[in-house]
Amino acid sequence: MxxxxxxxxxxxxxxxPRVLTTRPEVRVELERMVPFxxxxxxxxxxxxxxxxxxxxxxxxxxxxxxISRLDPVDGGSLIAVGWNREAVxxxxxxxxxxxxxxxxxxxxxGWSLVVRFESRDRLxxxxxxxxxxxxxxxxxxxxxxVRTTDHGAAAAxxxxxxxxxxxxxxxxxxxxxxxxxxxxxxxxLGVSDTATSQRIRRGLRELVATEVI
Length: 213
Description:
The chain is α+β, with helices and mostly antiparallel strands and 213 residues long. The protein has helices at residues 17-22, 51-59, 89-93, 120-132, 152-156, 159-171, 182-189, 193-211; strands at 3-9, 28-32, 35-36, 39-40, 43-46, 64-73, 76-84, 99-107, 110-117, 137-144.
């Protein structure tokens, strides 16, 4: 049974520590990491358009293999950087068989990651790996037995929550003014007002907890 987790990782134990600590105002977003040969090739978006500083800082990072691509995108820079797998053990552990890093956000105080594991056993082996190497990784949340996709938000929702939120969105429940009432929505779904309200509340809570990281 798959397990989707939210992890926090110390800034020095993951990607781009020099970038994040040199300029604390910078934010780095990671969508997915792909194993490539003996290295890892992630695409990251950095909230800085200072290409010269970015290249210089990444080149000075002993764990990085330099920037292979840098493009200005959405007020920042999209970069492709290679790392030695052994130099970034946390990244190594969540890109191997049975584990996929779906999304991540890095700031000066650390990284928040959404990672999918194929089972609790796989998560447990990673946890032991981190502990044995003294890596600062904390499991903040986990969801087991839900449909996981490449999108962290979808992985956090139960099928009932997803169905209810979709129906509410389609019916205009979230619009101002609302185009439907809670009672009308409940009648359409065939459940009580209380059940509908709870599904909406819990579903929105899970979406915010998963996406605002």
